[in-house]
Amino acid sequence: MNKLLLKYTGVAFIGLGLMMTLVPAPQAKSVPQSRGQITLSFASLVKSAAPAVVNIYAKKLVRRKNRGGLFDDPFFNRFFGDSPFGGFTRERLEKSLGSGVIVKSDGLIITNHHVIQDAQEITVVLADRREFEAKMVVSDKKTDLAVLRIETDGEALPFLKLGDSDKLDVGDLVLAVGNPFGVGQTVTSGIVSALARTSVGVSDFRSFIQTDAAINPGNSGGALLGMSGQLVGVNTAIYSRSGGSLGIGFAVPSNMVRTIIASAVSGKPLVRPWLSFSGSAVNADVANSLGLRRPVGVLIQHLHGKGPGIRAGLKPGDVVVAVGRHDVDDVEALRFRIATRPVGGSVILTVVRRGKSLQIPFSLVVPIEEPPRNIARIKGRNPFSGARVGNASPALAEELNFDSAVTGVIILDVASRSTAERLGFRPRDIVREINGEPVHIVADLQRIVVQKFKRWRMVVGRNGRNIGFEVTE
């Protein structure tokens, strides 16, 4: 029985295609009143949009060791791994296809991170079939967005203006433009099926636009257009049983796209405001205990002692129900609303405290690098040998998408075939305790592991739970 899978809308072959732009004047929303209105066409909208949507071809060189015979059998690979016994390295050029949107007349293009990830060469094909080599300006895995630039020798290119994705309503008409399956530029229509979908796990910052406009492999990075002709989203993923469209597609909202483009234009590193507190979505039981009329908002549980949350006067037990004029129903919605704000200035948080509604200014500042991350590779005869670790400063925690209030020593990666890997330690584990001694910083871990123990009892945090390990030499 096929399972329902979430798939990126990328495709693993190359085909030539064309792409488009849209820019007509906005119109008031209304329900069709006659048969004549139902037969109206999107043709003029599509014609004006087509030149701004492009095809993107990415090439990636993949190296794989081929040892021949039994050593290539998956069963034997479990035991021998990358065995040094003979063999040769085979190189293979992988090609992938996606879409993109020109967002500045000087050749700035938005697409998906997964379309160009690890690519050695990126080629952009315009609607008029001209080809350009593209350079990556910004690639952000957390939002699954990337910005490319092509050099046009001063020629101004057609581009799409960014719309305000917060003005979308469920039921609004939208068009999806891209290059599905490499067949060439394709336009599909549909409606906004849902907004602020936060359960779609294809990126760290989630608040997707859901649409039933047909989106297929190859549409990744393409345009989701509102009836004003502006870009309201970047098509990113689909739910699918077979790889084709089932009428459930997802797009990154244009207000998140705007922050990535701003970073690319400024030339500064992409830095988001520091949330500085962690919590959980309010369910029915919690809502009843707090006297809320319905389950809404995020219940604050922990605050970083030096963060903007505690400086603003937030307290554990507060419920954040809105950021600015936007309601938040869960942690992902809260993180999204903060992440789309520029660093500097402040935003008003609506907070419920003991049944009273408060308006609290919250400063939008960068996360601090305190304590210094002090990244180190653990060596020697101890259970953590081969693990690369660092202090969980707020800055590092934000980079790794941890709760910004987390503290301790984070395992960043584990060397292949190392002691740490054999014992089951994983990246993102947080080292809590060794033989009853708490581990607060990397220096604590380094000091403890050089000691001689016949028995090691360790506690690590993983996915919100503490897990015990015990090793006897």
Structure commentary:
- The protein has about 475 residues and is of the alpha+beta class.
- The protein folds into four domains: about 110 residues, Thrombin, subunit H; about 100 residues, Thrombin, subunit H, CATH 2.40.10.10; about 90 residues, Pdz3 Domain; about 100 residues, Roll (Pdz3 Domain), CATH 2.30.42.10.
- The chain is built from eleven helices and 27 strands.
- The strands form four sheets. A seven-stranded antiparallel sheet has the order 6-5-2-3-4-8-7. Strands 21, 22, 23, 24, 25, 26 and 27 form a seven-stranded antiparallel sheet that branches. A six-stranded antiparallel beta barrel has the order 9-10-11-14-13-12.
- The two termini are about 45 Å apart.
CATH overall fold name of the largest domain: Thrombin, subunit H
Averaging pLDDT over every residue, what do you get?
A: 84
Largest sheet: 7 strands, antiparallel
> Could you tell me the strand content as a percent range?
35-45%
The CATH class of the largest domain is: Mainly Beta
User: Spans with pLDDT under 50 lasting ≥5 residues?
Assistant: 1-5, 11-23, 78-86
Oligomer state of the chains in this structure: single chain
Helical element count? 11
Label the CATH architecture of the largest domain: Beta Barrel
Q: Which structural class do the helices and strands define?
A: alpha+beta
CATH superfamily of the largest domain: Trypsin-like serine proteases
Number of domains: 4
Overall geometry: globular
Radius of gyration: 25 Å
Can you list the strand order of the major beta sheet?
Answer: 6-5-2-3-4-8-7
Number of beta-strand segments: 27
Portion of residues in helices?
10-25%
- The first-to-last residue Cα distance is 46 Å
